[in-house]
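Following up on my earlier thread - several people asked me to post the actual chain instead of describing it. Fair enough. Here it is, all 209 residues.
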Amino acid sequence: MKTFLFQGDSITDASRDDENNFNFGLGCGYALLLASEIEKKNKGEIKFINRGNSGDRITDVYARIKEDIINLKPDYMSILIGVNDVSHELTMNCGVSPKKFRMIYEMLIEEITESLPEIKIFILEPFVLKGTATEKLWNEFNSEVRKMAEISRQVAQKYDFDFVPLQDKFDELSSDGDMGCWSVDGIHPTSAGHQVIKEELQKVIENYI
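Reply from S.P.:
Thanks for posting it. Predicted structure:
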């Protein structure tokens, strides 16, 4: 049996609970949506684990690399990280700079692939929309998250892993001014927003699963 690991922050966490319970262990977001569809097609051939943690920055993911990534020995892993690195800096002065974000991201990937040389990693693009959590510092949020997005793309390219673009898709969908359909606050997706992430990630992983 193959193992697929979802890794990231609150967008991935999506109120997950006990990983032994399929419905609650995967949360109520894109991880559950994607796993449900693949499970239907593959009939139990793939085990899904969600280790997204609300509030995580790249440094937090790296800090739990052994317990929540390497020790789980996933064959596939998706990771969506970067928005808290920005938001924590703008609102609490405890974020992660773009330079450090790149350094830690590369360290993370290198250590994972050293321990799990056959793993397939899917790097999702961090994204941001204008909403209640971002509008007061919109210029800063928009500029800095896009820096993290570009770094994520470059990390994927450097290590020859698939990159899943999301910002342009959400910009396109919200171009009519109805951002609320896709995000509750500019950072966290609605159920429709999670469906968008699921669809964009699925486009990439269907080449492997």
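The chain has a mean pLDDT of 94. That should answer part of your original question.
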